Amino acid sequence: MSVEQALLSFAVVAALLTIIPGLDTILVLRASIAQGRLHGYATALGINAGAMAWGAAAAVGASALLAASETAFTVLQFAGAAYMIWLGATMLWRSFRRGPVKNLEDPQAHPGRGGLLLSWAKGAGTNLLNPKVGVFYIAMIPQFIPEGAPPLAMGIALAGVHNLLGLAWFSLIINGTHLVRGKLQRPGFVRATDRVTGLALVGFGASLAFKGR
Fold first, then answer.
1. 187 to 109, 139, 166: CA distances (angstroms)
2. Strand (E) positions, the chain?
3. Residue 23 near residue 200, CB atoms below 8 Å
4. Contact 21, 169 (CB under 8 A)
5. Alpha-carbon distance 57 to 36, whole Å?
6. pLDDT digit string, tens, across residues 111-155
């Protein structure tokens, strides 16, 4: 299998996985509705950064420890579960808190660079602290590294393919949301979005914590 064939074959698998709705899609959709297009892209880029890190780790065998070590997997599993439950609980608390929800048309609802960095960190943290992402990459990427190809470079290239497909998918979501932002950015809809996303995060975190390998 040549490098070109490996990239194309992996692209088919990655495309199918990308369009399946999951936690990443929920986070990008929520950020786009509640905070705007820039935050949607910041979240998406954070998710892609986490995927790239896992891809590089899988290529050099670093995440093999995760797949083989019960202790390493458990530690990361509980860290990821705690993070997701905290993030989801925070969204739920804010959605039920009394007082008006800022409409995104309000200039004060647009935080600066620090706010975008926080959105990026949420996306990256969700991916980096999810051991299932690491297990997926360690199971898939080695199968698409041709004999004689440099593992690290090939792993980064494969993760890059996944990222490009993911960014294209997220762009459809973000810009589609932007087209109907007038309806989606109403305070009631923002609260409902935060509640659905918060429940999804808490549920995913709880299942991650209590589900065995």
1. 12, 43, 29
2. none
3. yes
4. no
5. 32
6. 455 589 999 998 998 888 877 777 777 777 777 878 778 877 888
